[in-house]
Design a protein that fits this description.
about 150 residues; mainly alpha; about 80% helix
């Protein structure tokens, strides 16, 4: 019964949260790539800056944890209407993801400016950060709507 309730809640809100689901997939994808290839940072000069903050194992776990937290927030959102803080959790996940993708974009930009990296990564990771900023805007709008209802 709970599985049907969760599936119904996800289905009901999926269209409104599609970018959050996509970015959750991006976090899980990054986690998987880093976990499967512990030499990712060694192979890419564009990742030199982010490698100074932690190795692939560290970042794989950060991405996995962030993805799981967001997945939990997306599942709870709309499925359990009595839990009024799901937009807050979604907003928190978006803030964390903005910082994460922003740090990667900044690191790649530094690599480009020092003639070690590829500029395409800057565009990709800034796009991810922009999507997360949109997710944050939507989540905070939902926080405001929830506060007006209560």
């Amino acid at each position: 019964m709970i599985v049907l309730r969760i599936a119904g809640g996800i289905r009901q809100h999926f269209g409104m949260r599609v970018t959050e689901w996509i970015m959750t997939g991006a976090l899980f994808g990054w986690s998987g790539c880093l976990a499967l290839d512990p030499l990712t940072f060694d192979r890419s000069p564009s990742m030199a800056v982010i490698a100074t903050y932690g190795d692939e194992f560290f970042w794989a776990n950060v991405c996995l944890l962030a993805g799981l937290l967001r997945l939990g927030a997306l599942i709870v959102n709309g499925t359990f209407k009595g839990f009024r803080y799901s937009p807050h959790f979604r907003a928190g996940a978006s803030v964390a993801s903005c910082v994460f993708w922003g740090q990667i974009a900044l690191g790649v930009l530094v690599a480009v400016l020092t003639a070690h990296g590829s500029g395409t990564g800057v565009v990709v990771y800034l796009t991810f950060m922009t999507i997360e900023m949109w997710n944050l805007f939507r989540a905070w709008a939902d926080v405001g709507a929830a506060q007006r209802r209560h």
